[in-house]
Queue: 2 jobs
Job 1
Amino acid sequence: MENLKKTIILKSTLACNLRCKYCYEFNRLNHNKPDVQNMSAETTVNIIDQFSRLFPKSIILWMFHGGEPLTIGTKTFNIIANHIREINQSRDVTYKIALQTNGTLINDNWCMALNLHKDLFSERIVSISIDGTKNYNDDARITQAGEGTFDRIKAGIEKIQLIGMNTTTISVVGKHNVKHPKEIYRFIRELNPHMAKFIPCYNFDEHGKTERLGIRPLEYADFICSIFDCWMHDLPTMNDDRWLVIDPIATIIASIRHSVVQWCEYRREKCENFLNILPNGDLWLCDTFNQDLHRKSGYRGNLFEMTDDELMRIITDTQELFDYFQFKEDLMRECDSCSVNEICNGGCLPLRHVMRTISDELAVEHCEAKRKTIRRIKEVVEYAMLES
Ligand code: SF4
Ligand code: SF4
């Protein structure tokens, strides 16, 4: 019997009610999406049960992801959440829930369901995607009919906050908003999230040209550096009630200060701590692995075709991760001589590999952008540490 500590991304559904202009689900990966689009409540419950049986002292964060996870409906969600609660009580496991949603389906019904189970949520957080003010958000995040989603997302965030849950905002930084960091920062701060995360829209064609609102790595670096300047400017006015944690800035600061770093991209231990389950039972280390390029390093088999013993083995036997560790070692070797290696810790492996596959120039720029951001933050943080 093995202990296990993992984040398991449950892709309960691949269906989504939106058609965001940059979305990889409908663009980059659409051609090889599996046939099975939804995972039933019964199947999900069986999976959770199987893990709790095989790994009796496991600590697992079950992350509901999609597609849009709220399309599974509150009935299915309640069955799964109730089952997790039961398992927590009857077995020696610690299971928590996380939810990443586009926020447009949050209504009173969902608020009742989330409120009922909020104690199961890690730090009571719901992550909601929003790309800034109405004009920027609605340039990218649209419905299937092409309508903007801002009003519905903002109402969703307010509803979640009203039931006493915390929100993390996730903003994609792309062509639609990259030139407006100050405006985006001010808007996100007003929303009062527990945390704000800015992630780059790295959509490139095979020649390395940006497409579908994609931006260059150095554009992303400039955006994050400007957000950092705004945050530093506001720092003296922040108190415990109005403290805004921004990623990747907070993670970089934690890494500089040798504190605990949560974000996998900035940790030595990376994808080996994750598991991604698709509705057809396919197991991948993480969603970011490309199904064509990274099958050898990222694919772990099909859960529905495995015996208990096989599942135990692929999870606990490090030999089973041989190809992944080779892939990791290969990419990490490039970091040995890098001046920010101790803080950056190698970034996201499949993302770096994709960049390198597209062009050397892109891979070089990606690391240059990381170094630029880290140096800018480090300079200020070290100065502040000297002063204090
Ligand atoms: S693939 Fe990237 S995002 Fe996923 S676990 Fe690995 S480092 Fe993290
Ligand atoms: S900037 Fe690039 S080379 Fe340097 S540590 Fe990060 S990923 Fe590795």
Job 2
Amino acid sequence: MAPQGDPILEVRDLVKHFPLTQGIVMKRQIGAIKAVDGVSFDLRRGETLGVVGESGCGKSTLAKLLMALEKPTSGSVKVNGELVDVHRGSNLKRFRRNIQMVMQDPYTSLNPRMTVGDIIGEPYEIHTEVAPKGDRRKKVQDLLEVVGLNPDHINRYPHQFSGGQRQRIGIARGLALQPEIIICDEPVSALDVSIQAQVINLLERLQSEFGLAYIFIAHDLSVVRHISDRVAVMYLGKIVEIGKDTEIYDKPSHPYTQALLSAVPVPNPEGRETRERIILQGDPPSPANPPSGCRFRTRCWKAQEICAVEEPLLQIRPGTDHESACHFAEVHDVVHAS
Ligand SMILES: Nc1ncnc2c1ncn2[C@@H]1O[C@H](COP(=O)(O)OP(=O)(O)O)[C@@H](O)[C@H]1O
Ligand code: SF4
Ligand SMILES: [Mg+2]
């Protein structure tokens, strides 16, 4: 289904700074880890936004902010036009029903002492209005079937399932409250490559069946390519480039995106690799002390004086058709179209 209509999720200038403290008895704040530092985007009904960036760039913190599991330092999240207020219980409960999460690690995210039926049905304990007690078993069995598991296995325990099957259990649980939005935080990163495609195909099927909108987080551009309508690339707590999938993959304009893309192997029909390789120097700087101006400048081969002084805004620049946060943004086809 093509994404359409008003945004279902509106994120504006979202910031999460974790205080850095010193001292054990007399704690003093000596700084802050700028995990998420001014992130804005919209998500439409039925749309998938891929969010990509190296480990530590703030992807999971962003996910927790969207789920209202973390309180933002500043900024706002609206769902269906309504501001999410972590201080208003009724508002939060309704909101929590509508936005669910699928976690990264299917081995640790499921309680080993609970049966699959209890795990998937647990959200009904809080949201009793969705499934009265007598209906729950049937609802859970339906969910097992929807995600491609055997409904007769409702009384089994997580250890009796494979990694891919466990992730299906996590997805079934995410679907239990019939949400409109699912945040998938690296849902396939812990799975074998052969299983990854099956789980992604399942998520795509569920999306068209139930009109779900996804935020799909990954550390690698190759994983989100297939499923994303749009992609946001994050670096040190900020979005550095965002656009439609074709804009990001075929016409990347930010040096960081170009470097990430150059790490994705893409053979052409003759089996030859057609990508250009850009090797990034060093690791990302600490989010407690990000570089002045452009945060990517310490690793950027195009950096000029202005990059240390002036922060590049995320905007469409001449010669490009989507937003990029680089003073010298220019389209560069890293993966030469074959
Ligand atoms: N609860 C927390 N307290 C302090 N720092 C945190 C906390 N959660 C995450 N961080 C820090 O915030 C940064 C972003 O982390 P995270 O959102 O987990 O990144 P990602 O998911 O992209 O790997 C990291 O430097 C991490 O150490
Ligand atoms: S603004 Fe400067 S340092 Fe930042 S990505 Fe662009 S060229 Fe590189
Ligand atoms: Mg993470």
